[in-house]
Amino acid sequence: QVHLVESGGGLVQPGGSLRLSCAASGFASSYYVMRWYRQVPEKERELVASITRPGGSTNYADSVKGRFTISRDNAKDTVYLQMNSLKPDDTAVYYCNIFLRIGSDYWGQGTQVTVVS
Q1: Cα 23 from Cα 5, distance rounded (Å)
Q2: What is the DSSP-derived secondary structure letter of residue 57?
């Protein structure tokens, strides 16, 4: 059973920083993509960033480029999202996702990020 545990959300002022973590367990593959999505009420879930294993290729939404950095710790099967220069528009529930193969992707429970003065 694949399991994703997210942590690191919270309340921060504009311009501040947070680091989200997502620890994955319950699978044996060394080939996967881990992604961070975010969602606000009444809007579709938005892809924020992704990173591959192996290779470590990264991709970012235009809205977060230059401010957010996705990284991974292979030994821990953990992915991080360093979020700097946060804006009120970054307020959302952030979800971790792991894609193992077609028909096999899993989600975390979500962590709330609130950016407010």
Answers
A1: 5
A2: -
CB 65, CB 47: distance < 8 Å: no
Q: Which of 5, 15, 22 is nearest to 117 (CA)?
A: 15
What's the helix, strand, coil split of the chain in %, to 5? Answer: 5, 55, 40
pLDDT in tens, 104-113: 999 999 999 9
Quote the DSSP letter at residue 34. E
Q: What pairs with residue 68 in β-bridges?
A: 83
Q: Residues with Cβ < 8 Å from 53, sequence gap 6 or more? A: 30, 31, 32, 33, 34, 72, 74
Q: Which long-range contacts (CB under 8 A, 24 or more apart) does 50-56 make?
A: 51/79, 54/30
Residue 55's pLDDT band (cuts 50, 70, 90): confident
Residue in the block written with tokens 């979020």: 83
Burial zone of 65 (CB within 10 Å; 0-12 exposed, 13-18 middle, 19+ buried): exposed
